Amino acid sequence: MGPVRAWRHGSEVVLGPPKQRAVFALLAGRANDVVSVDHIIDAVWGGDIPQTAANGVHTYVAGLRRVLEPERSRRESGALLVSTAGGYALQTDPETVDATLFARRHAQARRARAEGRLQEALDVAESALSLWHGEAHSGVPGPFAAMERTRLQDLRLTAVEEWAADMLEADRPVEAVTVLLGAVAEEPLREKLRWLLMAALYRCGRQAHALEVYAETRRLLRRELGIDPSAELRTLHQQILTGSPAASAGVFRPNAVQPAGTGAPEPEPPAPRLVLSETPKPAQLPPVARGFLGRSRELERLARLLTETEPRGASTPIVVVDGPVGVGKSAFALELAHRLSDHFPDGQLYVDLRGTSVEGCSLSASEALLQVLRSLGVDDSRIPADLASRATLYRSLLHGKRVLVMLDDVLSAEQLRPLIPGGSSCVLSTGRQRLGGLAVRDGAHLLRLDPLATQDALRLLRCLSGDRLQHQEAVARRLVGLSGGRPLALRMMAETLAANPDVSLAALVRHIVEEHGRLDRLTAGDDASTSLHTLFETSYRALPDEAARMFRLLGLFSGGLITVSAAAGLAGTTEQEAAGVLRLLARRHLLREAGGGLYRIHELMRLYAAECAEREPLTHRSAVVARLP
Which H or E run contains 318? Predict the structure, then answer.
């Protein structure tokens, strides 16, 4: 909560150069959790990763061990900074980390306030705020430090707002004014701070200063965002003008009503309100598909993550569900969202970002915000043109609300980040790519959704196909094996069985399992969104050129497990280059890591890769086949 510093037995230790301090800050922020080397690299270097980054991480960890455990010999394993499972962990009591201690004291103050213990809430909040000694992560480079600076700053200002409201309730406005003036200077667009400052000034007998704060706020919002002050600020302004007792109530009253018959000047013409409560509560979740089965363990785990009563700081819980085509990511996320809807009483927002749309046109973050702001009742004339201002307005509207935001088919972290609200809302998203950077920079929880287990797949197939598979265990298992446990493929197979009651089961199964044209048959009429072939194609088209070429060439590979050396031989590249491309294909869920540097490709994907291989010139294919072992 200031420059990154550390003490050992009461004496400060020198943490070394900036990037070494960045590694320490990341490990301290995730105390006792194993942080992989890849995550450390992303957190420290971001998108500008040098080839020596992994060696750099090991060097910085060694430097930290020397200052944190000077008595440890080089051959001894560390007791404080340990290496395990492909990463590192800092073993320490989380409360020895100021950021964690601050978050816990903030939560303690909130509990005391909710239980009516006002003085205890003030004392604990002041002890939490006293931990701050300047800008968080000051002088530390890297995207993780940048995001933590923003997160912790928002958390601190939230704590200041709550403390100031308590000070007004305790009739101590003079002390609140000084702190609020500094906070408003730091975050001039934060309207709740300005509301509290106006109320505190008025309570101190400084009516003219309170009115000047309002006038300044109105000028600033119109200039920076093209909007007027919120309804709460306008109401407080009118109460101060009229000398209403409500302005002296000392608490944040967003629904305060202006008393009538005061003979005061007419208020300014009201602008369209930007408050979520004035529009119907959003309930935008699409329905869940019939026959959702399985996934109980994953659903329970994510439900706990998204509804925990004491989130870490003011950070918004974020979950990203990724996985291969047809594995049921959207259905899973919708099932979870519907189950959690009661935990988010202010509504549920849904946006299809079309990251892998068959039309090939994904929704930009700015376009998505336009859609969301309109759905929240904001008139087009009041929606800013630029992305940053739209994101600011969106977060202001959801401030203090418990809203579940579902973002379907995310293409990248950059597309998702502007749609993350603050505070007690949550974000549930799906996508075909693993967004490791979102986990590092934004603390997102990533879940890879695997194909259904055999028993769950059999239950789904029987549920959807009626009685066609009754007493046909061997046939059902054969179809499940061909589907790879992908619910979309199972649904298509079940539809084929159910839609052709007059065709013998044996004939239908032969039609489904025949290799030639199998992908084209796994579709539902002319609906491109249910065609495995079309969905595979959208994933393929999103690949960089080198990865697309490798994928095509893998269609010529007839072996089982794919090794790095075999892939390098196919593509005519170095093993280092081939390893990087294979990792990318695995992150895009076109391959599956099998451990030990080995990869496998599912039968349905192999069929598609073989089809793509035909796009290579015949001479190229012949040369590749000649290189195969």
Answer: strand 318-322
Residues comprising the chain, all counted = 629
Band of pLDDT at residue 38, cut at 50, 70 and 90:
confident
The 8-class DSSP code of residue 278 comes to: G
Q: What is the Cα–Cα distance from 216 to 211, expressed in whole angstroms?
A: 9
The amino acid that residue 132 corresponds to is W
Tens of pLDDT, residue by residue over 299-357, are 999 998 888 644 444 578 999 999 988 899 999 999 999 999 988 988 999 999 988 87
HSE of 1 in the Cβ direction (CA atoms, 13 Å)?
A: 20
Closest by CA position to 448, among listed 596, 592, 340: 592
Residue 164, Cα to own-chain centre: how many angstroms? 31
Looking at residue 78, the DSSP 8-state letter turns out to be P
With 0.90 as the threshold, say if the pTM is over it.
Answer: no
Give the Cβ contact number of residue 423 at 10 Å. 19
Place of tokens 């579902």: 406
What values do phi and psi take at 407, rounded to 5?
Answer: -115, 110
Exposure b/e, 50-79, CB count within 10 A at least 16 = b: eeebeebbeebbebbbeebeeeeeeeeebe
DSSP state of 283: B
- Nearest Cα residue to 188 out of 216, 163, 168: 216
Q: How many angstroms separate the CA atoms of 315 and 168, rounded?
A: 26
Q: In whole angstroms, how far apart are CA 352 and each of 76, 330, 331, 401, 422? A: 52, 10, 13, 22, 21
Pair 567, 551: CB distance under 8 Å:
no
* Amino acid (one-letter) located at 102: F
The model's pLDDT over 494-515, given as tens digits with 9 standing for 90+, comes to 888 877 777 778 887 777 766 5
Q: Alpha helix locations (H) across 443-486?
A: 454-464, 473-483
